[in-house]
Amino acid sequence: MIYLNVVLGICALIYMVFIVFFFCGLRKVRLNKDLSAEYPQIAIVVAARNEENNIRRTVKSLAAQNYPADRYDIIVVNDRSSDTTGVILQDLQKTITNLKIITITECPPDVSPKKHALIQAVKTTRHRFILTTDADCVHDPNWASSYVGLIEDGLGVATGITVFRLDEYRSGFERFWQNLQNIEYMSHQIVLAGAIGHNVGFSANGNNMLFNRQLYDDYEHEALQKKVISGDDFFIIQTAEKKHYRLKFNLHPAGMVQTPPQRTLRDLINQRARWSSKIGKASAPVLLFSVSTFFYYLGLSAYPFLLIFFPGFWLAFVVLFGIKFFCDTLYIVYGYKKFGQKLNPLYYIFMGLIHAPFIVIVAVIGSLFGFTWKGGRYKIDSKKM
């Protein structure tokens, strides 16, 4: 137990250093209050597969942007949909003049389907900057303008806040765990915003992101990692940092995107497993933080059971857990305030109790057992299991 405590103590120290790093970075992120008064040519890209329940609302929110229609293109990739997504898009194109549709019927077996769809979309435009979002998102009318206001020479990637939109809960239990999911998801975004404050690319929100197309043109293999099923946002922002591009976080209220949450616990675990599966291919800082945090959380998760056999070490557990809870609380409370969001203390306490084992579980599942996505079963690469 002594050796275990030493290892966990080192991991806790690394964790504290990173939280301080994120905190200082988040303090550097400034609110971009003004919308752009200029309208450079941009493209908005959406990859859609079997999104008949969402695609109409998404495209309409993009078509309703306070941005001249002749200054931006909406490019929707209908990626092998077997439902009425294509029919809905054709109908929308009758009234939305800047809507372009790309239909994909096949995907190469060794390429991530979503990345293949994005590549096809990017190839159809020569605009310097491209906004990406998902086919189930809803946007503020000034969403595009809030990003254009961030554009400057050397900008590689900008990303913003995504919040869950859910009209009603099916039960009191769903209300409970959905609120926990909100906090867990928001904590990810607070971390990536803090890293961006130091111009370090831990990750980005692929459903709410602007990028310089030069990253595709000059560093396509590195920025996309085509064979890795997920991570179109993860790899492109890390490549932007590596190639010394500027990174920005969009704090403008109009830059916030709404998306539906996962509706079942199984889907939530599966999604987080997919996100965690690509950590092994991350940059050195992301890998150090992820690995040390995993072992720290693993130790915290196992410690209560170890106390059955080693009851004399309960104080060490309290200290180790207290370090996590104090650091997380300090940073998350500040992050919520910075993002203009409200944090429910009761749900936060519950999330704090289960957060470590939850992260350990999804990391193990994502690394060892794979995940289901868009009808296919995968591990980290794009080949189906």
Characterization of this structure:
The chain has 2 domains: 2-24 and 283-374; 35-271, Spore Coat Polysaccharide Biosynthesis Protein SpsA, Chain A (Alpha-Beta Complex), CATH 3.90.550. By secondary structure, it is α/β, with parallel strands linked by helices. It has helices spanning 2-28, 55-63, 85-93, 113-123, 143-148, 172-197, 214-224, 232-242, 265-276, 284-306, 314-339, 345-369; strands at 42-48, 72-79, 99-104, 129-134, 138-139, 155-160, 162-164, 209-212, 246-250, 257-259, 371-373, 376-378. The chain is globular and about 70 Å long. Strands 3-2-1-4-8-6-9 form a 7-stranded mixed beta sheet, sandwiched between helices. Strands 5-10-7 form a 3-stranded mixed beta sheet. The protein has a two-stranded antiparallel ribbon with strand order 11-12.
